[in-house]
Amino acid sequence: MESSAFRRLQTIAHHVLLLVPETSTNILNPNHSSSVELECVDSSSYPVIIGGMVLDVNGRPFTDTLPGTTTPGKIQHVSGGVARNVAECMSKLGSKPFIISVVGLDIAGDVLLKYWESSGLPTSGILKLQGVTTPIVSNIFDSRGELAAAVASVEAVEEFLTPDWIWQLRDTISSAPLLMVDANLNPKSLEAACKVATESGIPVWFEPVSVTKSVRIASIANYITCTSPNEDELLAMAHALSSGEEFCVDKKESAKRKRQSIESFFSLLKPAICVLLEKGIKLLVVTLGSDGVFICSREIPSFMKDSLKNTRTSFYEKQLYELVNESCPPKQYANSPCALHFPALPSSVVSLTGAGDCLVGGILSSLSTGLDMMQSVAMGVAVAKAAVECETNIPAEFSLTKLAAEARQILLSAKQLVLD
Ligand SMILES: Nc1ncnc2c1ncn2[C@@H]1O[C@H](COP(=O)(O)OP(=O)(O)OP(=O)(O)O)[C@@H](O)[C@H]1O
Ligand SMILES: *[C@@H]1O[C@H](CO)[C@@H](O)[C@H](O)[C@H]1NC(C)=O
């Protein structure tokens, strides 16, 4: 099933390439980023991404799995971890993210560091510790490609990515255009990172990771500028932030509302969304799988330190900014509070993992080139589409022209919703 989808995709890609001749400059590839160009980038303005680097061991059975026995299938080693995925995606879009993470001196750690070293990304924020096991997650998928079960051994991030290590890197954080933290960090480290950023006026993006870890937002909500939960994470976060109020949504009801209309589905999630906005989160991007995203805010934040706007230094960042700004002219969504639905474009799904991380990577890369929030979220949705259409977590390369054209289509079909 997967291989026929892949062949179909290759055929489509072939036709797209025939129809839209690409110049080599707008196909991004980390190997293109020459060392000369990297030297021109002032390291003090790297977007900072803090969280897990994980080696995923993925088992994809050929048929449905049965308990108590083995099922024939394919096993692959894939570099993952939310923060690592977001940073890799950003690097492939021309950004130079500075990652703060931890690995052990073992085989998994070597595999994870290889991409960073070969693409010239800074590794000085990655703690390399003797005697520590590099985070590993073993994923089992079902025959449709959805995650069926997973075992995570990611204690290294909880234990060794300490407030002290974050504190040692405070100069890098406080001169970044933006900071993303993933919820794999322990609560003390999350708070340390948020404090350093907030004291210097750096906006903070919180990536919830999982339903269980998403509730870590409770103790740092007042520092968070934006967060990007899926439906389940949104409900868990609202529950944690409202001292025990239940926000259960029946799965059947949720599916029924989705079939009815996007407005009907939105009204189901609205109470939870309002809790997060009342607790001080400026902007929410709620991910809806193949239905795209909701964007909700009381006031659209300027998600970039003003002094760092228009300091796009790399050739690729300039190109991303210009292509997107041209095909998606900035539009004022003056209505505040504001709630919008951005649909996802139809896609040929190959693998759903990495979609959420690419959405965030696409948004953060776009924001750090100086694009506005709406242009950036539209780019994020286009980047996430590319992620579901490839087998790896992060596509091997992006076509900026294609992404900009898709972002335009997404913005044109955006729908205004009522928040109050
Ligand atoms: N079938 C699909 N077709 C097109 N786009 C999709 C599809 N599934 C997901 N996406 C895009 O990816 C984004 C994130 O997907 P999803 O809502 O599943 O997030 P998530 O649960 O956080 O995913 P992940 O487990 O990958 O982190 C969606 O908002 C959408 O833009
Ligand atoms: C972005 O596009 C808008 C509208 O087309 C234009 O006015 C503005 O100058 C562009 N910004 C830059 C920096 O090119």
Automatic annotation (TrEMBL):
Keyword Transport found: no
Coiled coil location: none
One Pfam family per UniProt: PfkB
PROSITE patterns: PFKB_KINASES_1
Carbohydrate kinase PfkB domain boundaries: 50-299, 340-391
GO molecular function: hydrolase activity, acting on glycosyl bonds; kinase activity; metal ion binding; pseudouridylate synthase activity
Alphabetized InterPro entries for the sequence: Carboh/pur_kinase_PfkB_CS (IPR002173), PfkB_dom (IPR011611), Ribokinase-like (IPR029056)
Keywords associated with the record: Kinase, Metal-binding, Transferase
GO cellular component, one term: cytoplasm
Protein name: Carbohydrate kinase PfkB domain-containing protein
Organism: Iris pallida (Sweet iris)
Upper taxonomic lineage: Eukaryota, Viridiplantae, Streptophyta, Embryophyta, Tracheophyta
